[in-house]
Amino acid sequence: MDLVSLPGYVPGFPDTMGVRDLGGQRAADGRLVRHKTLLRGAALVDLDESMRAIVESWCLRSMLDLRADGEVVGRPDFVPAGARYERIPGMWTSDGRPVDFSPEGIERIMERERNPETFMGGLYASMMFGNAAVHRLVAWVASGETPVYFHCSAGKDRTGVCAAVLLMLLGVPDEDIIAEFLLTNEYRAAEIAHLPKELPAWMADIAPEKLRRMAGVDETTLQTAFDAVDARHHTREEYFQSEFGLDGEGLRALRDRLLV
After folding, report:
1. Which of the listed residues 14, 48, 159, 172 has the most CB atoms within 10 Å of its CB?
2. What is the DSSP string of the chain?
3. Confidence of residue 104 (pLDDT cuts 50, 70, 90)
4. How many Å apart are CA 48 and CA 26, to the nearest integer?
5. pLDDT value at position 14?
6. What confidence tens digit (pLDDT) does each residue in 162-174 have?
């Protein structure tokens, strides 16, 4: 697929970074998400001069880094002047440890978890409740600290859940949120289709289809997060109030600010 034709495509970055603008997504009331306000992608590391110039042109007010400690070592973000930068790990295990998606961290995870779909589904669902990173992102957006760029290492799982929450808040239908989420597989198509010929020993007994899932994203995993919200709350509005303190007035203000 021609990436240029994809919704929200931002030129000038490697395809695998999945850098894109959530602007243009249509809410249920017919309005569109403002362009150049909510931007997502991979970590802004090893950028050349032209890529840095693009980031600077966004005039960011805030940047949220969802990576764990191990993912940041030797890989600092490029933070443009004027942007508030915070790093808050986006995924946590049930025993209170941040999930580390560095190569070493993934190896440790896979030594314990042999079913990536089930494991990731649980992590996605857990991000929907009491997550400091998600709360910070929603607070920034609600208070007008935009444009904002949010990312993890690859810009697909933790970033994808954060994008889903923001689009939920703006009233974008679930099917359209899922479609935006699955764009990651278009950006990462080459990596998904062509697994490395030589794999680390810990990957040797993992089925190829599971390895491809790890290289991209899967609709059922995000659906697990939606289902977790709907199982706990009668309505999405109830969820927004309970989780983020956004009552009807606050939600309307947020949508009026971000939708056109």
Report:
1. 159
2. --GGGSTTB-SSS-GGG--EE-TTPBPTTS-BBPTTSEEEES---S--HHHHHHHHHT--SEEEE---HHHHTT-PPP--TT-EEEE----B-TTS-B---SHHHHHHHHHH-S-HHHHHHHHHHHHTSS-HHHHHHHHHHHTT--SEEEE-SSSSSHHHHHHHHHHHHTT--HHHHHHHHHHHHHHTHHHHHS--SS--GGGTTS-HHHHHHHHS--HHHHHHHHHHHHHH-SSHHHHHHHHH---HHHHHHHHHHHB-
3. confident
4. 33
5. 96
6. 999 999 999 999 9
- HSE (side-chain half, CA atoms, 13 Å) at 80: 19
Rg (CA), the chain: 18
Tokens 């495509």, residue? 9
212 touches 184 (CB < 8 A): no
Residue 182 CB coordination number (10 Å): 15
As beta bridge partners, residue 92 has: 98
User: Whole-angstrom Cα distance, residue 242 to residue 237?
Assistant: 9
Contact 216, 188 (CB under 8 A): yes
Average pLDDT, the chain: 91
Domains of the chain plus CATH, in order, are 3-243 (3.90.190.10)
With tokens 């956004």, the residue in question is 246
Residue 2's pLDDT band (cuts 50, 70, 90):
confident
